[in-house]
Amino acid sequence: MHLRLLPFALSLLAGSSHADLLKDPQWQAWLDAGKTAELSRAAQARVKVQPDDDQAAVALAMTAVDDNDAARLEASLPALLACADKRPQAICSYALGRVYGQQAMTASVFKMPGLASKTKEQFLRAVEQDPQLFEARSGLAQFYLMAPGFAGGSAAKAKELAADVQPRQPEQARLLRAMLAMNDKDWAGAERELAGVKPGEDRALVRELRGQWTRLGFEFMEQKNLPKSRGIFEALLRDHPGHAAGPYGLGRVLVEMGQPEEAVKALERARVLDGAERLPIDHRLGQALLAKGDKAGARLALERFVQNKRANPRNVESARKQLAELG
User: Fold this and answer.
1) What range does the domain containing 44 cover?
2) Is the distance from CB of 260 to CB of 254 less than 8 angstroms?
3) What whole-number distance in Å separates Cα of residue 99 and Cα of residue 55?
């Protein structure tokens, strides 16, 4: 898979095993929910009082990654580099890896290899500094699986990384094996590994598991195995009622199944839940409303979407075409 897919994949699989990235529960909650405006304001306020605060540096970097804001990504580097070099911490190295990975997504062919190398280097450092920070281990595994060979990608290294956590962290190992199975298009194997994960009260493992089930649900949808995909998203809706992933995925599947009215209900529900800001919900809602025959409602949803600065350009282009067709 292409390196440009790496930041998106990492955004789906955010989570850490025994410690959140951010110590402040409210800050971590904002990060989990994709509420970057609130988190950025709080972190900026802290920086004014404590310019060398590492938690604020990580928070500002992660909000820039979430928003894919090139200027803020670049601005986050000095504080992160100071943290990683002068006060080595796994969370700072991990955040650096995320920033470099996001920059690689839009870099020229000349700059991309260098940014890929930096991404891998920082993820490796983070794993070495804190083997328990699963977010870093997951990020490194994703890098190995998705980066091309010339940029440091290696399925063999990803498998070594998965094997390295056993038997110390069996749940982590299962999640990594599921990731490897999906890379090999072994969907049954991935489903079996995910079904065996018991995250308990570990919020970070819960986040990681939710992300991988979401990915698998969309994989089945792409294969037109709609009943299987629907079952996964209904389970996500049941197990994570406060998160947008379940109803968003369910809405997508229901459109494919020719049930636009039910799809609209699911997507409207997804709009107000945690994680909604990371998903192109209004784009898909507009499509569902069109399928339902509600052109006015579709126009409103699509207009909202094209104004979303966080939206994927490809989705925006598609939405603009649909708006043009609506007149």
Assistant:
1) 1-175
2) yes
3) 15
Neighbours of 11 (CB within 10 A): 17
Q: Please measure the distance between the N-terminal and C-terminal CA atoms of the chain and give it in whole angstroms.
A: 38
Q: What is the CATH number of the domain that holds 141?
A: 1.25.40
Residue 11 domain-assigned?
yes
Determine the Cα–Cα distance for residues 221 and 30; give it in Å rounded to an integer: 30
Nearest of 295, 230, 219 to residue 263 by alpha carbon: 230
CB-side neighbour CA atoms (13 Å) of 28: 14
Is residue 81 a part of any domain in this protein? yes
Residue 45: both structure tokens together: 């306020």
CA distance 266 to 325: 25
Question: Does a structural domain hold residue 230?
Answer: no
Tokens encoding 167: 């038997």
59-86 pLDDT, tens per residue? 999 999 988 889 999 999 999 999 888 7
Residue 310 lies in a domain: no
pLDDT digits (tens, 9 = 90+) for 280-304: 999 999 999 999 999 999 999 999 9
Angle, helices 90-106/70-86, rounded to nearest 10 degrees: 150
